[in-house]
């Protein structure tokens, strides 16, 4: 879920919460206090799943170019979809990251991920920051199919883009984390699987949100009528042996998509002996964990450096 989107969102028990209602009631003073608190707590985090000492990687700041509005869907696709390509100005085959924005599957913009794209490009990653179809006009699995098509396009054009097709990761936040994680499902075709996943604020188990209007719009059904479909769309039930390494990050105060989602994902990956890390940002909620990442983006980038 990102700023500027409809005010309905997911919460732990499927109730509705209006983003920003508390801020409006308190005016500018409350906004400033909230901002100050988020900045103060942004450095407080719990990082689990590290193998040995945390790996530190040297800072890089390479130049890059951005190619905007590149069409990645073929003729005949249900929609003409585009992406921005961030290409580092260094030679040789490079790792790549597919970026997927959030927005409750009903909205959002790829430009919301530009900050992450910029950081990755400066570290030498080719970044493909995509748009995808929205619900309710397009139901699941349309959004996943769009992300998979973007991955296929990236690999099909790897030579021209100077990308190593065997070093491609997916990174998403909120709804984008859901889609990125499905690209790491254990039963995904090896040709369509990524080598690592970074997932922030992930709604991992749809069964916990039976009354969510957003999931209802995405699925076009109810949990009572389509438990099998809702389960198949839940990443926590799709990961297993064969899944790539996962880096999960989440706001510890997330009341929209509870941190238990990320904890359940970590447990499922651990049970399957899949390398997984969980970075919980104490004091941050769903939106503040995106706006003030509390070191999560740096940690996620270091994770990719180690796994890619």
TrEMBL record:
GO terms for molecular function: hydrolase activity. The keyword Disulfide bond does not apply. Residues 85-269 form the BD-FAE-like domain. Pfam families: BD-FAE (PF20434). It comes from the Bacteria. Keywords: Hydrolase. PANTHER family: AB HYDROLASE SUPERFAMILY PROTEIN C4A8.06C. This is Alpha/beta hydrolase. It comes from Solimonas fluminis.
